[in-house]
User: What shape does this take?
Amino acid sequence: MRGMIHEQTEVTDKLREECGVFGIYDLSGSDVASSIYYGLFALQHRGQESCGIAVSDTNGPKGKVSSCKGMGLVNEVFLPGSLDDLHGDIGVGHVRYSTAGASTRENAQPLVLNYIKGTLALAHNGNLINALELRKELEYTGAIFQTTIDSEVIAYHIARERVNTATVQEAVGNAMKKMKGAYSLIVMSPRKLIGARDPYGFKPLCIGRRDNAYMITSETCALETLGAEFVRDVEPGEIVTITKDGITSDTSMCLSRDEQARCVFEYIYFSRPDSHIDGVSVYGSRIKAGRFLAMDSPVKADLVVGVPESGNAAALGFSMESGIPYGTAFVKNGYVGRTFIKPKQSSRESSVRVKLNVLKEAVCGKRVVMIDDSIVRGTTSGRIVSMLKEAGATEVHMRVSSPPFLWPCYFGTDVPAREQLIACNRSIDEIRQIIGADSLAYLGLDRLSGIAEGLPICTGCFNGRYPMDPPAEDIRGEYER
Ligand code: SF4
Assistant: This one.
């Protein structure tokens, strides 16, 4: 017998962010490990494969770092008691999903490096496009790598520069001059916490404060979780250094505003809707995307629904602009952790769609506008459209709050090679037929600037115009080969 929940589907056709970073220095000397834990918990959407925390005591023996990292979600890696041995007033944490480098424990971050000047711990979000050259440069001088991630290349270059510089922040600056690509970094030295953002500003990074504790993190939602106040964003190209004397800033690497290129997908999908990036509300930009879709691609319908979670705000925006009622059509099971046993192809459960259920009563007999943030390979969209139709929707009109993906991303997002992208070499109508929708429309490329409120953005995966020359060959994952 079928109840209210009609059918289920597994949501797999989603892009994934590479990482989230969190650093803190409590100048009053209190332990920071639990704050990092809660900060990482708030950033869990940015990476679910591995996570870690490294802390140090600025008043203790110089260079002693305690760390804990492992595979899995924050609440799988850190069990009750895990933080008990992590003492220190300065620390850094990381959540990871791999787009370059295998998903293994060795590749989990933060990376902790012992070298002639002491210890460095590093957490990195982004992807370098010249990591292979930088790695070879070090290997030819005898360096032996323990991981296959570009973050270790960055850490080694900082350590090497540090030998010839007066301060660790200068070493970070010198290393940045060699690095090409996307990076938001947090570096912990024995007495300093340093945050650095690549000159294009691909990935977000911001500063917060709670009493005497300063924080640097990927998203403002982590600050709110900790009851910290937002101080400001780290500027693209800026290096901020937090010491017991406060914050200093080096902006010598900053580019002109026009040259900056934030990843617009942070607004469309990656970041949490309650975050603000460079002064722009993520929720607000998704509402706008929905409004633009309603203006540019209107349709007669009875109900607007979002594919949870990231399609919901755009669906609300579509409803506000069009006057078509907004509703809930899906119930999502959010408890699918890393250890979830996926159904085998051969078993009866292979067709059981585990993550998403349709509310039959909500859609039966209705013309439905369904909003999703993107279509990558198209596998999931087709399944969701057919679920709505099986539940009785008379028409399903799909609206997508981003333009079609036509090119891969080299900057830390797993937009795959062109041949895997459904929009590559297909017309919109051909895609519509494949997914089985009654109509299909994407957000126009010319609308992206509007959803980021005029901030300079990267649009490379939509039009192939990257802010810097992409690598001649796709080297993502090259270290394993
Ligand atoms: S290519 Fe696309 S996903 Fe990659 S940084 Fe640019 S906008 Fe973001």
Q: What stands out?
A: The pocket of iron/sulfur cluster is lined by residues 202, 263-265, 409, 411, 413, 415, 458-461 (CB under 6 Å). The longest strand covers residues 118-128. Residues 373 and 401 are 5 Å apart (CA to CA).
